Amino acid sequence: SGRGRAGAGAAMSVFVTRRIPAEGLRVLSQASGCRVQLWDSEEPVPRAELLAGVAGKRGLLCLLSDRIDREVLEAAGPGLKVISTMSVGFDHLALDEIKKRGIRVGYTPDVLTDATAELSVALLLSACRRLTEAVEQVKNGGWTTWKPLWMCGYGLSDSTVGIIGLGRIGQAVARRLKPFGVKKFLYTGSRPRPESAAEFEAEFVPLTKLAEESDFVVVTCALTPATKGMCNKDFFSRMKKTSVFVNTSRGAVVNQEDLYDALAHGQIAAAGLDVTTPEPLPTDHPLLSLKNCVILPHVGSATYATRSTMAVLAANNLLAGLQGDPMPHELVL
C-alpha cells in the first residue's frame, strides 16, 4: 500500500458502458481510488457517447453489444490499459488492435456455462417438441381434442446429437443431454479434444458427417473467421428432414437466409435460436413467420445469480488489470 498504491489509485479512471448488476458496480465503487463513469441505462451506449466516455480512461468495462474497434481505442488514447468484457465471447473486440497497443483483456468464462447449457437444452426441447406452437394452439382455439398425430415432434431417446464446438458450454450441454437417453454424441471443431470427449464417448467427425448423422445439432462454438457462416445451405441440405438445429453461440455462425429456406421447405424439422444477426432481430424478419423456428432474445446466461456473478468477475478482472495484478480470468492475446 502506501504512497505508491495511492498514486496507482489516482490513475484508476474507468468507463462502464451500461448499468450492470449492482454487485459488480459495488466492487468498483468500493475499490480505493477507482473513479467510475457509468452509462447509466438499460439501453446500449450510443456510439458518440462511447467515444466520449472512453477518452482518457485507464479501464473499460463493456458488454458484447459494444463494438470495441480501432476507432474506440483511438478515442480512448494511449492511457487505456485494460478492457474487461462481461461475456465469454470476445468477437466484439478488435483483438489485433488491442494486442498491438499492449492492452490487457478480461472476460467471464466458466461462470455462465451452466446457465447457458441449461438454456440450450430448454431451447432444444422447445423446438423439437413444438412447445411455442402448442401453446399458441391452446390460445387460438386450435386445441379441439386429443389426436394421435397432432403436435408430434421428435424426442431425444436413442438419438444422435452433434455438437459444434465441444468447449465448456458444449460439454455442459452434452452432460445434460446424456440422461435423456441420447445414444451417440458427435462433435466437430478446430481439433479433436479426446480428454473432453471421453466423458460422453463423443466421436470427432468432419462438419459434413456431423450434419448427415445428427438428429439434433447444437452450436456452441466461438465466432471466428473460420466459423462465420459455417451453417449454410450446404450444411442444412446434408441434415436429415427430421433433424433439429439449435444455436446458442453467435448469430453470424449461421447463414440465416439458408436456414430460412431449409425450415420453410422442410429440409430440416425445426430450429431454436438464442442468437441472431442482427440483434435484436427485426420484427418483420422472415424467420419469425415460421412455426418451426423458436427464437429467443439472447438470454443464454440470464439467471439472476449468473448475471450478478458475471458482473462481479468483470469488475474484479478490471481492477486486477488496473493494479497490474493477475486477473481472475484474462484472455491471453
Automatic annotation (TrEMBL):
It comes from the Eukaryota. The keyword Oxidoreductase applies. GO terms for molecular function: glyoxylate reductase (NADPH) activity; hydroxypyruvate reductase (NADH) activity; NAD binding. The keyword Oxidoreductase applies. PROSITE patterns: D_2_HYDROXYACID_DH_3 (PS00671). Residues 14-330 form the D-isomer specific 2-hydroxyacid dehydrogenase catalytic domain. Keywords: Oxidoreductase. Residues 121-300 form the D-isomer specific 2-hydroxyacid dehydrogenase NAD-binding domain. InterPro entries: D-isomer_2-hydroxyacid_DH, D-isomer_2_OHA_DH_cat_dom, D-isomer_DH_CS, D-isomer_DH_NAD-bd, NAD(P)-bd_dom_sf. GO terms for cellular component: cytosol. PANTHER family: 2-HYDROXYACID DEHYDROGENASE-RELATED, GLYOXYLATE REDUCTASE_HYDROXYPYRUVATE REDUCTASE. Belongs to the D-isomer specific 2-hydroxyacid dehydrogenase family. This is Glyoxylate reductase/hydroxypyruvate reductase. It comes from Halcyon senegalensis.
